[in-house]
Design a protein that fits this description.
The chain is α/β, with parallel strands linked by helices. It has two domains: about 240 residues, Rossmann fold (3-Layer(aba) Sandwich); about 170 residues, Molybdenum Cofactor Biosythetic Enzyme, Chain A, CATH 3.40.980. The protein is about 40% helix and about 20% strand. It contains 15 helices and 18 strands. Bound molecules: adenosine-5'-diphosphate (ADP). This is 3-oxo-tetronate kinase. Belongs to the four-carbon acid sugar kinase family. It catalyses: 3-dehydro-L-erythronate + ATP = 3-dehydro-4-O-phospho-L-erythronate + ADP + H(+); 3-dehydro-D-erythronate + ATP = 3-dehydro-4-O-phospho-D-erythronate + ADP + H(+). Keywords: ATP-binding, Carbohydrate metabolism, Kinase, Nucleotide-binding, Transferase.
Amino acid sequence: MSKPLLGCIADDFTGGTDLASTLVRGGMRVVQVIGVPRDLNIADADAVVIALKTRTVEAAQAVKESLDALDWLEKAGCEQFFFKYCSTFDSTPEGNIGPVADALASALGVDFAIACPAFPENGRTIYKGYLYVGDVLLSESGMRNHPLTPMSDANLVRVLQSQTQAKVGAVHLGDVSRGAEAIVAKFEQLRQGDVKYAIVDAVSDADLCQIGRALMGHRLITGGSGVAMGLPANFRDAGKLSAPTSSAAKLPRVEGRSIVLSGSCSLATNAQVEAWKASSRPAFKLDPLELAKGDETILEAVEWATQQLESAPVLIYGSANPDEVKRAQRELGVEKAGSLMERALAQIAKTLVDGAEVRKVVVAGGETSGAVVKALDVKALRIGAPIDPGVPWTIGTAAVPLALALKSGNFGTEDFFEKALRCAP
Ligand code: ADP
């Protein structure tokens, strides 16, 4: 059995599948596991992605879980390590990007690593250290209203600097566009100036591929999935990875009913929920204030879905506009409003899989996906072809095989839910 080359630690579940999807597209065989596995038996894989749910937990907890994951990946024989976070740099002033990067760097004895969340295919570009979402700065995008990690500063050097004692610098597009060699030279210059983390500009896939090339031999990489685009070629050049094959993304068929669960309140997801309703498909809205009173609404949703599923797939959602989210958070607190909704959607998923022959589940929202996948006791995911950039169908290994599409809130076109169901395995 060959050893995996790349070991990845993702701070949420949709981030994990997004990264895995990029690596599969680059021709790597990828296994994604949910949480740190208990044993060391993984099938032949070129990369292993350990998906955690550490984006919004206490920093100390995120550090501990990430170090456990690193330990497992090192024992599995990986030679390069990737800390994957969101392409919108989702974090709070306390972390967790800085503290986790610090811990991983120190465990690996690394004095320099890049921080590059760029994902141009999905509109995330970095210019002079500032992150853009589409045509606007991160701080002017829908991310300013995120229920858990509102992002009010687009300057990533400043954002990361507030989360670490180590010095943060930047590699600007002028250097990136001159290619891998120029990027390597800039890395060296920054390292000489005691910079530990470099925010690296990228506005195109070509930039990301050059950055990827410049990362050959780096023990630790931190970033979004985009920067992983250039990594398979490094392993191929070193003779460690064979030529890409088209069968890497083929999934077996899954028979059963389909549901869509949405806990994301992002602009993109809210538009996807509206598009679903506009096409007169069945939809059930959950209100956190009702959920706080007891499990009545959950039972009601399950009963409604069980009936509807006789004839069509259903959507159950908590997704709401910023005013509604703020109202719920004022009454319940941010943490409680979020966890009530995550718990409800997770419980509904479990009940419908156990009792209503549901086998295909689309989930919108990173934290939400984490909660659903945990409730379904999914141990590992096999990654298929992308539905939209960054969102593949996957097959989950659980008590029964489940087809899962885990969508990061901001990803996907307006008709994403229908499109996903159309191309479900
Ligand atoms: P995204 O991928 O868009 O970041 P997440 O699932 O990670 O989505 O985060 C969204 C958070 O918002 C979750 O914790 C979810 O439970 C919470 N949430 C969903 N609906 C509501 C609501 N109506 N009011 C308050 N919080 C909500």
